[in-house]
Amino acid sequence: MTDSTAPARTEVLLVTGGGRGIGAATALLAGRRGYRVCVNYRSDEASAASVVGAIRAEGGTAVAVRADVTRTAEVERLFTAVDTELGPLTALVNNAGTLERQCRLEEVDEDRLNRIWAANITAPFLCAAQAVRRMSTRYGGAGGVIVNVSSAAARLGSPNEYVDYAAAKGAVDSMTRGLALEVAAEGIRVNAVRPGLIHTDIHALGGEPGRVDRVAPDLPMRRGGQPEEVAEAILFLLSPASSYMTGGFLDVSGGR
Length: 256
Ligand code: NAP
Prior knowledge:
Bound molecules: NADP nicotinamide-adenine-dinucleotide phosphate
Low-confidence stretches: none
CATH class: Alpha Beta
Radius of gyration: 17 Å
Helix content: 40-55%
């Protein structure tokens, strides 16, 4: 019997922000499952190199490519590097994202909003556009899969913490639906995961590195999640095991 979560053909996967956190766990698991993986990073070269080293140590194929995915020219260079170094792209995980210090909405200024929109909305749009141009049968491609990393924040709104970030993830959910329907007949599936509170470095950006442990007692499962638990859901959405899913959402939030 074949493993339905393993790729059936040579799969080439780009994980944006793949050097740390959920992106790193996704890249590692994908490498283990036979995907050729591009680990994109913006500034933390050492972490990205360590993920690539771990994949190669297990016999997999991976490269690290630096690019700020909020910038059109850098996104174009990133996708060209994938074409050249790994072959035709078949899968994209729009994982890179960010948040800023916890505050109320009236304390947020224009510069912060522009940064939040750029990292969490513009970046997945720019990357999805490059992926569609390569994967869509409309342009002679062989199809593919896109998984967006949204957040439970899109449903919850993140009051008193970061309504801007939550709203940006709401936009990711809308894009997931719209793009999925736009390319459904062109061989591309588009779905999203909505993680809850996951143990990664992102919470330090909000000014509270211990946020997951503080909230954990109030969570339905009484614990935060691990990046590897989100990665498993992402790999399911990437794989043929989810072949009839598009425009859908998997909540990986321990019931939150
Ligand atoms: P993380 O540990 O802070 O890692 C973020 C990654 O994104 C880093 O590898 C970082 O690159 C990369 N990145 C950020 N901006 C980038 C840019 N402009 N260009 C390229 N790469 C960029 O975060 P995480 O918790 O794993 O979050 C991953 C995704 O899950 C995000 O979309 C986040 O919103 C979402 N999420 C997280 C949680 C959670 O509780 N952790 C919950 C829901 C959703 P460098 O390493 O080079 O800095």
